[in-house]
Sequence to fold (148 residues):
Amino acid sequence: MRKTTKTFTLATSLALFALPAFSAEIEVKMLNKGSDGEAMVFEPAAVKVQVGDTIRFVPVDKGHDVVSMPGLVPEGVAEIKGKISQEFSFTADKPGAYVFKCTPHFGMGMVAVIVVGDTPANLDAVRGAKMPKKAKDRLDAEIARPGL
Fold:
């Protein structure tokens, strides 16, 4: 009996360590008007996640898309692009900062940043990015928030 108990305990312990890590799913809404009264926003506009988490962009209001900005994603990440008025998800598989825009409303400041992992290696590129003033102001405000 004692040998059976040890075998069961060992098998149970190994099985627990073999379980996959749990990943989160984060929802980002695409809105004509945010809860703060601002027009054309992603809400939340900044999110910190871990590698393996899924970010789901939901078009609460029609006419929005989500597109990664060239040079403002981790090195080696291909373009991430959703379609107008359609929900879009992606799984963050590389650490770093990912900057997204809504193509039709970019000039109105509709940008979001997803930070994957701890300190993103590409944060200087994000800070130095050239874009319309309203978008740049929003992005700068979001990346300056504590905890991001």
Summary: The CA atoms of residues 90 and 122 lie 19 Å apart. Strands lie at 25-33, 39-43, 46-49, 54-59, 67-68, 88-91, 96-101, 111-116. The radius of gyration is 20 Å.
